[in-house]
Design goal:
- By secondary structure, the protein is of the alpha+beta class.
- Helix content is 51%, strand content 10%.
- The protein is built from 20 helices and eight strands.
- Strands 1-2-3-4-5 form a five-stranded mixed beta sheet, with helices on both faces. It has a three-stranded antiparallel beta sheet with strand order 6-8-7.
- α2 runs antiparallel to α3, α2 runs parallel beside α4 and α5 packs antiparallel against α6.
Length: 454
């Protein structure tokens, strides 16, 4: 039986084909396809107000032609979106002048609609084509990469992000459990998109999602049925873990789910580069917590086991003048790939690295006053508490390279989530566990951290 989404897609395809015949369009695929200049003219035609069938056909043509552009022509296209498809400057100036004179609600409404760049309406119309949403997400992925070297295009990116945030708001997202019965096309993408702890093949994936004490959930969108937007991997355990190795060990002894006390979120991966900056994780974690509580009423603790991806980079630029020469030499040994195997060295380094990690989490800030660590920003912003720092929590090559082997537990105390979220959102206050507060007070060697929080 066809799904409603598939039926709608078939209808759009039928409309498109009729529209192509009406306006005499030839396929955009094949030799001799016009490049960026012709594509831009097609975009003008999309905005010209043609009927539904011809408009859908033109939108499809634009999407197909865009897919054949090389990097140079894509840049030309994005530049045209910036300069040629912005607001009508003359009309905007007239209405702005009228508002300054009159300041009525009617003129304010005119000002609002006139200030909208034409490219936003163009993107809305392109979205009507079969597969339009998927194509625009891919287009925005190209744009995100281009903005890194051409900051002028940030205005175009804001328009993409504005519309995509509306089309991918929580009301449209569907939470699905991913298990071994999930279609292979989705399972292949879980392997490909896993961004925290690499999954090498299908047998490795099965160890993550098939055992009774393992769960995996993802958000999906009706326009991208087989494309996960974000997914989280969960382990059901007896207690809060401090290392990732035992969780991923294929020979581990499984925990009976009905006896588990702790749910561990050990990997969260965003899948679509074209949806960068559009947050799904906060909704995902909260909904997964509710689903797990219903399935396993005995669960008491919801906690992460998170990487610290920016710690090694921060250490390289940190002012370590307050450390002794011997301790600075120990920190320098992190550059040597074999330090983890030197007898007694990891124990000696722990004494130096743990206080530096406290400073990193509590005092290292971005320009906006938020923590420099992206994972910390995510979980603290969702209302979690910085619970525990785990030395040698991840001794994989990636874990040692990026985070000096550190991992962190963020605790989601269901009674405090909203209060913690407000403290972080309004005052950048980092809520930490009592155990970490004691470590801060006991650390007479390290520099004082900024306000520790409650």
């Amino acid at each position: 039986m066809s799904t409603p989404s598939a039926l709608f897609s078939d209808l759009l395809t039928s409309i498109t084909e009729r529209g192509r015949s009406l306006i005499g369009l030839k396929s955009a695929v094949g030799d001799g396809m016009p490049q960026a200049a012709s594509l831009i003219e097609r975009c003008e035609a999309v905005l010209s107000g043609r009927g539904e069938a011809s408009g859908t056909a033109l939108a499809t043509e634009v999407i197909l032609r865009y897919g054949a552009l090389d990097a140079v022509d894509r840049l030309t296209f994005f530049k045209a979106l910036l300069h040629r498809f912005g607001p009508d400057q003359d009309k905007l100036a007239r209405i702005a002048k009228a508002w300054l004179a009159e300041k009525s609600d009617a003129v304010a409404a005119d000002l609002h609609f006139t200030s909208e760049p034409r490219r936003q309406e163009l993107l809305r119309r392109l979205n009507r084509a079969p597969g339009g949403t998927r194509a625009l997400v891919a287009m925005r992925a190209d744009l995100v990469a281009t903005v890194k070297t051409d900051k002028d295009l940030a205005a175009v990116d804001r328009d993409f992000a504005h519309l995509l945030a509306s089309w991918f708001n929580r009301g449209f997202l569907v939470l699905r459990r991913i298990d071994w019965s999930t279609p292979a096309i989705v399972l292949e993408k879980i392997i490909r998109y896993e961004a925290v702890h690499e999954i090498s093949d299908f047998p490795s994936l099965r160890l993550r999602i098939d055992p009774p004490d393992r769960r995996c959930y993802g958000f999906f969108h009706p326009a991208l049925i087989d494309e996960p937007l974000i997914f989280v991997e969960v382990a059901l355990t007896d207690a809060m873990p401090g290392a990732i190795g035992p969780l991923l060990d294929g020979e581990r002894k499984a925990v009976s789910p009905d006896k588990a006390k702790t749910a561990v979120f050990y990997s969260i991966s965003n899948c679509q580069k074209g949806l960068a900056g559009i947050s799904f994780g906060n909704f995902l974690i909260k909904q997964v917590v509710e689903d797990l509580r219903r399935e396993f009423p005995k669960l008491e603790t919801f906690v992460t086991l998170s990487p610290v991806p920016g710690f090694s980079r921060w250490l390289k630029s940190a002012n370590l003048a307050h450390l002794s020469v011997e301790d600075r030499q120990l920190v320098a040994k992190l550059e040597h790939k074999t330090w983890i195997d030197e007898p007694g060295l990891p124990e000696r380094m722990k004494r130096v690295i743990e206080p530096l990690a406290l400073t990193y989490f509590l005092a290292a800030k971005r320009d906006d006053g938020r923590p420099v660590d992206p994972v910390a920003n995510f979980h603290l912003g969702n209302g979690a508490r910085l619970e525990r720092i785990n030395w040698l929590g991840d001794i994989s090559a990636k874990g040692l390279r990026d985070g000096a082997g550190l991992m962190v537990n963020y605790l989601y105390n269901l009674d405090d989530i909203e209060k913690n979220h407000e403290a972080f959102a309004n005052n950048a206050e980092i809520v930490v566990s009592n155990a970490l507060k004691k470590l801060v007070k006991a650390d007479a060697r390290g520099r004082p951290a900024e306000a520790v929080g409650r």
